[in-house]
Specification:
- Helix content is 39%, strand content 18%.
- It is built from 11 helices and 12 strands.
- It has helices spanning 2-17, 26-34, 63-77, 79-83, 110-123, 141-149, 161-174, 193-198, 229-242, 303-320, 332-345, and strands spanning 98-100, 104-106, 131-135, 154-158, 180-182, 201-204, 215-221, 243-254, 256-257, 264-265, 275-282, 289-296.
- The chain has an 8-stranded mixed beta sheet with strand order 5-6-4-3-7-8-12-11, sandwiched between helices.
- The longest helix is centred in the last third of the chain and has 18 residues, at 303-320.
- The protein starts with a helix and ends with a helix.
């Protein structure tokens, strides 16, 4: 692992030097400032308890809710599925977890990725999926589960350097046999066929040129809602140009979020008309999040437009119940003042 740590550090330093800050929204600029002093390979061993995973790691659920969610997850997926999906190592040394069957770790954040993968498997033939790209992969929780269940898949991860340093460590520690290709290894602005053959996992920055074609499955879970809208448009252009024939896109994001400085609304995501809707529903245990799996088709359909109208109606009902929605109508300076006062007294 020492050799890999050196590669992880080299890649992080390389990526910081090449940073294209247009890809970093106000949301992530704020998050990264809070942990700037921790962004060092020396802190990776404890990254899930020292705030390095802050913003990527949902640990705010109360213990009672966590236990109920886990019981419901067992009912949904079955114990055999959990044994084949959950990790046996506590990489990052998270403090709050459940030991399942004495050998498997599960935490508040992890259970959602188990459910996402379970839903995917029910709706597409994973044996036919050869190349996967996860956009906004965080510290690699979902990718790790895919690797555990489908060992021979090639997976590309695209995220900011502050996340890539975590996913590099997390995935190598969980799957030491896997060969990781890092952004600093790119030559002549391209990843070659030889690279694709030699390596299993590719960890890239958003500004790296993406010349790989025929991706069978693109995934984004709960991070497009925290991107600038221009960045979202770039990713949709990437997805719609690089997806294989009849390839899939799993999109799990909030109906509404405004931590970028303005509203990012699910129903406004720039899908073109060449999509068939496989499933579209409110996410499990997350009433403010929508989950949709779509499949690429050759000819124009009106399915996605009709679905977006339905999602807009759901969003309106969800936002009516959100006590924070008044921030949508406040001047930003007044909203900041409100937050400041609130933090003093709470």
């Amino acid at each position: 692992m020492k050799k890999e740590i050196k590669k992880i550090d080299l890649n992080f330093q390389h990526s910081i030097k090449k940073y294209s800050y247009s890809h970093k929204s106000k949301h992530w600029a704020y998050m990264h400032r809070k942990k700037k002093k921790l962004l060092n390979v020396n802190y990776l061993e404890n990254f899930r308890n020292n705030n390095l995973s802050y913003g990527l790691d949902d640990q705010f659920y109360k213990k009672k809710e966590f236990l109920k969610n886990f019981i419901d997850l067992k009912k949904e997926c079955g114990e055999d599925y959990l044994k084949k999906t959950l990790p046996k190592k506590n990489i990052g040394k998270i403090k709050n977890f459940i030991k399942f069957k004495k050998y498997f770790f599960v935490d508040k954040h992890d259970i959602f990725f188990v459910k996402y993968l379970h839903d995917l498997e029910k709706n597409l033939n994973f044996k036919k999926i050869k190349l996967i790209c996860e956009i906004g992969s965080g510290y690699g929780a979902l990718t790790s589960k895919i690797i555990k269940r489908y060992n021979k898949k090639k997976i590309i991860l695209i995220d900011l350097p502050e996340s890539n340093i975590l996913s590099s460590y997390f995935l190598k520690a969980n799957h030491p046999e896997k060969k990781i290709f890092y952004s600093y290894q790119i030559k002549d602005n391209k990843i070659t066929k030889a690279d694709l053959k030699k390596y299993d996992i590719f960890i890239l920055n958003p500004w790296d040129q993406f010349l790989i074609k025929n991706v069978d499955l693109f995934i984004n879970t709960r991070s497009m809602m925290e991107m600038n809208y221009d960045t979202i448009k770039k990713y949709f252009k990437l997805i719609q140009s690089k997806l294989s024939k009849q390839g899939y896109f799993l999109n799990i994001n909030r109906y509404y979020k405004d931590t970028t400085g303005y509203p990012i609304e699910y129903h406004k995501y720039p899908y073109d008309n060449k999509w068939k809707v496989i499933f579209s529903k409110t996410s499990w245990k997350q009433p403010y999040v929508h989950a949709m799996l779509t499949q690429r088709v050759k000819n124009d359909l009106n399915e996605i437009n009709n679905e977006m109208h339905k999602i807009k109606k759901i969003m309106k009902n969800v936002t009516k119940k959100d006590p924070r929605m008044f921030r949508r109508f406040l001047h930003p300076d007044f909203y900041k003042l409100y937050k400041y006062i609130k933090n003093i007294f709470i």
